[in-house]
Amino acid sequence: LTGNRGRYDLPNGRVAFNRKGTGEFEIYKVSDRYVNLAGKTYAFSVDAAGNALTIEESETTLPERPALKPGTQAPAFSGTDIDKKSHRSEDYRGRLLLLEFRSTGCVHCRIEAPKMVKSFNESVQEKVAFLGISSDDSEDRLREFLKQTGISWPQILEPSEGAIHRNFRAEGEPTYFLLDTEGEILDAWVGGGLAIERVSKY
């Protein structure tokens, strides 16, 4: 268990499960509430002091959550950008898609922005697309950031608890997912400084 300021039951608290008994731990937020173990679904909760993890078998079995690993299908998504244009995962079939989860307060995102803009402007739009998913709470602040950096690709504004953030389990900033022409994950990473090199490989 990991908590914050001595509390372990907050929504963003973490629980690591060795679900398959292989020693490989999978991270769940306390707010996820459910985990699949040995073919069954369990509701879980943590007490405030972190002294106990409680699990209780659920009456319904939920589907396995996406693995989010290279070679697996990315979660489907849909959203509306700040210019009121809709974006769905199926709209990007036939092209590579770089999803960038960030906010204007992310220092590494600001540092990487000039290289990202240069790469986007030099790329063939029919072959690769960029899509920003921003957790900013101010559209005006986001628009000012876009103006300052020259970023011109679409931006979806949603809180970090939003559906796309939640389905892709985007934790740090920036978090990147590179999807292939069929929506499978080619690469995924957290942190700045590597985006252009990793995209260029494909």
Q: Can you characterise this structure?
A:
- This protein has 202 residues and is α+β, with helices and mostly antiparallel strands.
- Helix content is 19%, strand content 29%.
- The chain has 4 helices and 12 strands; from the N terminus they run ββββββββαβαβαββα.
- It has a 5-stranded mixed β-sheet with strand order 10-9-8-11-12. The chain has a 3-stranded antiparallel β-sheet with strand order 3-4-5, with no helix packed on it.
Uncertain stretches: none
Protein structure class: alpha+beta
Helix proportion: 10-25%
* Number of beta-strand segments: 12
Q: Report on the biggest sheet.
A: 5 strands, mixed
How much β-strand is present in the residues?
A: 25-35%
Integer-rounded radius of gyration: 18 Å
What spatial form do the alpha-carbon principal axes imply?
globular
Distance between the termini: 37 Å
- Give the mean pLDDT: 94
The total count of helices amounts to 4
> What's the order of the H and E elements?
EEEEEEEEHEHEHEEH
